[in-house]
Amino acid sequence: MSRTPSSPEDQPVPDHATPERNLILDIFGTLVTFQVRSTETDGAYSILEMVVPAGRTKPQMHVHAATETFQILEGEFEFRALRGGHTDVFRAASADIVHIPPNVPHCFRNVAKTASSMQVVIAPGLMEGYFLELGMPTAGGVPVAREPDMKLVATVGRKYGIELSDLE
User: Fold this and answer.
1) In the chain, what are the domains?
2) Nearest to 70 by CA among 88, 53, 54, 93
3) Which of 21, 26, 148, 149 has a CA between 20 and 30 Å from the CA of residue 15?
């Protein structure tokens, strides 16, 4: 039996079917889905989608050498970024884009009454190990609300070049 070039076995597997994609992690109640892994881009960038529950307390300011670009998909977030010696506080809603350059202390929180989501491009993409180590795989897409272990967050963060900051 011969196979023709159009046989299913001869067709390339589409990128969206690779095992690295669509991995969903629960990171202290926030769902993180890997859309593009850094292994797919030779470390140049990674793309994540985050679904942040309503009422999350403001996370700790943090700083790292990667650039982060956030596109708000649904809901509203409050961002804080330390620039020029003072903290800028601003909100971003659906379709807004927020760009955080490297080495700028920043944080964000969901200020909507329901879960909010955003797509995050991280360049270079080498920080994704941080999410992999802190997250728990979840197939059902239902997060488990739990308080972050800040000592663990700090330890894992340092491993990936992320420093927590007391600056506000």
Assistant:
1) 19-165 (2.60.120.10)
2) 93
3) 26
Residues 105 and 165: their CA atoms lie apart, in Å, by: 7
d(CA 61, CA 167) in angstroms, rounded, equals 7
- Indicate the pairing of strand 136-137 with strand 30-36: unpaired
Average pLDDT over residues 80-94: 94
d(CA 143, CA 115): 11
Residue 26 burial class via C-beta count within 10 angstroms: exposed 0-12, middle 13-18, buried 19 and up: buried
- CA distance linking residue 161 with residue 35, whole number of Å: 22
Tokens standing for 71? 């596109």
Paired with 67 in beta bridges are: 123
Q: What percent of the chain has pLDDT over 70?
A: 83
For residues 76-99, give the mean pLDDT.
Answer: 95
Residue type, 32: V
Q: pTM, whole model, 2 decimals?
A: 0.83
The DSSP 8-state label assigned to residue 97 in this structure reads E
Cα 62 from Cα 141, distance rounded (Å): 26
